């Protein structure tokens, strides 16, 4: 994650601001939040505390006292697929939301305040993939704690029809520098903020799940991918793609009991 260091907080702690465009939060909306908390609590060792009331029934997931994710409840009358949503940092969520509209995206929720923690909007890109925009309140530090620790988000990847077309949208909205993968026959663009890779866009054409369409995939760090898969299945999850070794570690694509897709990654040590 790309952060910009600021002055120390009132207790002397280091404060940080995520550079615009950097993934700074992930959130999951589900139909059965209690069962979902049990699943991720057992899988990742998360504990939970109540979140902002403006977001409805919503809890923050904590690992070793650090916030790592949010889980909320979908309205019971909406039969929507559950999905992890990454939030991208912004210094002005209202302006970013307007830019999303001007660039062909759609504004679904907000912008609205989340208690005293910040301001958010939920949008979709021109292909229909949903993402959030987050502006941290000036008096607070933002984003995820303890990156790289098992149980924390490690990466976000957009699965879509064509990477180049969609990458232009995100570059226009957030000012990313996009770099296509070499060789060129691999339809993949890495998004950079201030010279650091922060997210990826993978074009998979017609290989997208018909019931899901373009969507963001969050990768969660684990100590041992194979062991985590055994635990996931025992807890009611599903393996979508078995563990495989790659340049960034040992990765597996999975789904939780409600069908929300995510990935497990054991980074090289």
From TrEMBL:
<dbReference type="InterPro" id="IPR037523">
    <property type="entry name" value="VOC_core"/>
</dbReference>
<feature type="domain" description="VOC">
    <location>
        <begin position="22"/>
        <end position="136"/>
    </location>
</feature>
<feature type="domain" description="VOC">
    <location>
        <begin position="152"/>
        <end position="267"/>
    </location>
</feature>
<protein>
    <submittedName>
        <fullName>VOC family protein</fullName>
    </submittedName>
</protein>
<dbReference type="Pfam" id="PF18029">
    <property type="entry name" value="Glyoxalase_6"/>
</dbReference>
<dbReference type="InterPro" id="IPR052164">
    <property type="entry name" value="Anthracycline_SecMetBiosynth"/>
</dbReference>
<dbReference type="InterPro" id="IPR029068">
    <property type="entry name" value="Glyas_Bleomycin-R_OHBP_Dase"/>
</dbReference>
<dbReference type="InterPro" id="IPR041581">
    <property type="entry name" value="Glyoxalase_6"/>
</dbReference>
């Amino acid at each position: 994650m790309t952060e910009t260091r600021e002055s120390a907080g009132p207790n002397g702690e280091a404060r940080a601001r995520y550079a615009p465009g950097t993934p700074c939060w992930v959130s999951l909306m589900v139909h059965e939040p209690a069962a979902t908390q049990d699943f991720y609590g057992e899988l990742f060792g998360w504990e939970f505390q109540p979140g902002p009331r403006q977001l409805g029934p919503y809890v923050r997931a904590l690992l070793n006292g650090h916030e790592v994710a949010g889980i909320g409840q979908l309205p019971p009358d909406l039969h929507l697929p559950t999905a992890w949503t990454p939030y991208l940092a912004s210094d002005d969520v209202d302006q970013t939301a307007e830019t999303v509209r001007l660039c062909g995206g759609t504004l679904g929720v907000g912008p609205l305040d989340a208690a005293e923690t910040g301001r958010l909007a939920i949008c979709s890109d021109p292909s229909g993939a949903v993402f959030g925009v987050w502006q941290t309140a000036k008096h607070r530090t933002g984003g995820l704690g303890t990156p790289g620790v098992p149980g924390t988000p490690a990466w976000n990847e957009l699965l879509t029809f064509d990477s180049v077309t969609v990458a232009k949208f995100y570059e226009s909205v957030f000012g990313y520098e996009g770099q296509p993968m070499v060789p060129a026959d691999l339809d993949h663009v890495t998004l950079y903020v201030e010279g650091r890779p922060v997210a990826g866009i993978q074009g998979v054409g017609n290989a997208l799940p018909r019931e899901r369409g373009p969507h963001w995939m969050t990768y969660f760090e684990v100590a041992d991918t194979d062991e985590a898969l055994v635990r996931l299945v025992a807890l009611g999850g599903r393996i979508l793609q078995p563990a495989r070794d790659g340049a960034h570690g040992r990765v597996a694509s999975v789904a939780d009991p409600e069908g929300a897709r995510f990935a497990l990654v054991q980074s090289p040590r």
